[in-house]
Amino acid sequence: MHVLILGAAGMIGRRLTAALVAAGRVGNDPLTGLTLVDVVRPEAPAGFAGPVRVEAADLSAPGAAAAALKERPGIVFHLAAVVSGEAEADMDLGYRVNLDGTRLLFEAIRALSEAEGYRPRVVFTSSLAVFGQPLPPVIGDDFIPAPASSYGVQKAMGELLLADYSRRGFLDGIGLRLPTICVRPGKPNKAASGFFSGILREPLAGLPAVLPVPDTVRHWFASPGAATGFLLHAAGLDLSGLGTRRTFTMPGISATVAEEIEALRRAAGADAVALIRREPDPAIMRIIETWPEAFDTRTADALGFEADASFDAILAQHIAESR
Amino acid sequence: MHVLILGAAGMIGRRLTAALVAAGRVGNDPLTGLTLVDVVRPEAPAGFAGPVRVEAADLSAPGAAAAALKERPGIVFHLAAVVSGEAEADMDLGYRVNLDGTRLLFEAIRALSEAEGYRPRVVFTSSLAVFGQPLPPVIGDDFIPAPASSYGVQKAMGELLLADYSRRGFLDGIGLRLPTICVRPGKPNKAASGFFSGILREPLAGLPAVLPVPDTVRHWFASPGAATGFLLHAAGLDLSGLGTRRTFTMPGISATVAEEIEALRRAAGADAVALIRREPDPAIMRIIETWPEAFDTRTADALGFEADASFDAILAQHIAESR
Known about the structure:
Chain A is of the alpha/beta class. The first copy, chain A, has eleven helices and 16 strands. Chains A, B: It comes from Methylobacterium hispanicum.
């Protein structure tokens, strides 16, 4: 099975590539080749004997999607997206990449489907950003996507396209709304959500971290390992029993900031916790308080998707990988 | 207030035009002019002294949206769409008109908004076709749009675009999911839903009608007059209290086929009812049984949208207009 990863240079794309190569298989099939595409040229993975093609390409450019499908991959991971803040700041860019790029990909697959009977599994990453206020405390699988950002709108539109192209038989799609990734590796950034990881990652490295919201803030989390696991699981699932709904919120850990901090205390002690400095930021609080707190993910659960075992497990994964 | 109607030649567009001219006002403002656009040239209304421009135009053609906005209408009624069956049969046409046409309209408004501060009220007609199985017996305002047709997908995507362009302040949008229109005037047609009107309209004209489904089938109805009333009401509403959700299911009458028939009996007697011939059609039944039966429309109710008083009132409207 040849695998195409669009957005292969990102954090999840790189982990997914490594996990596929380590497993040597995808779903029930041996991994026979890889095409890795991103706006910056992805790195070819070490330790894989099969053919690997790496390309720097903009999926919204004419012909780019068809070129990416040259090997007729049996599985397409579509992770490529302009992120939330950028899609809000540059409306044209967000719609071009997140909406038009996705539509052009599905249209390129449709063209091959009509010409050759091609019908790949497409695994599309969506986002909790499809949900907007007012929200119930626990959001079920029937809850309306009503986004409060252009990024969320573009992801919700991608979900609808994925369902329609699947229903028509051009592709066999599944969309995953990923929880907020925690602990996100790397440097602190300006994302409103950055502190959820920062208050763990920085103290674990002996560095101070700022907490801009109250301890009572609750959110929905998955480790990078769990997120990669969702993608791998989605690649191998039998989707023939699904109806027209094709995108599902992934299971996660619902945790408050206080619970994050207690996990840090258990893992690294009071000295680590003491590195967290409370600096309430009303601007960040206004953003965060519109976000979902918890989900009832029974459809994804029934499909066999598995959350992290606990917030302690999320933290332990980060500690193990930071060594 | 200058008013633009896109899709002005359709059944609802013609009624809306006549209702605006009869009222001489729209919302709280006098009606000062009309631009009527459709793929076929709409008729100019009689009895209106102000300027009227009628155009045959394809909204998905380059420049068509900007041309339609020449008078900078304060209110844009966007009723233009390729209908459900046609959008399913011709996928490219449906996406081009229903998705691209809507997006091009909103982009043309955005360009004027950024250049001149233009910000019209946009009233967009969506559809119950945004909902797909599995459905609860009564569908609330929080229920997920998960369409089972390309038409439904295109309308759901239009709802998302309307919300995003409203949130960003380029336009002041409201979307109305119209109930199934009953009694639809005109000839019997091949639409799966045709019998809902046919079993009333034909017997009232002394003609036989075919009923292809059981008497127990339940659905959600509005008269042509109520639908026009929703549009007029939407034009004048203060929407400043709305959040990011901008499209709402309109109130309707939930009625079974048996209740339709009893209304016909009350209005026109047993001889009319005897003209209904039961010819069960499993193909039509399979389509109809996936459709919604009833809605909880509390958001639209709170906004002051009003359903017909009863199914008898729906029938009485048709009888009065047929004289």
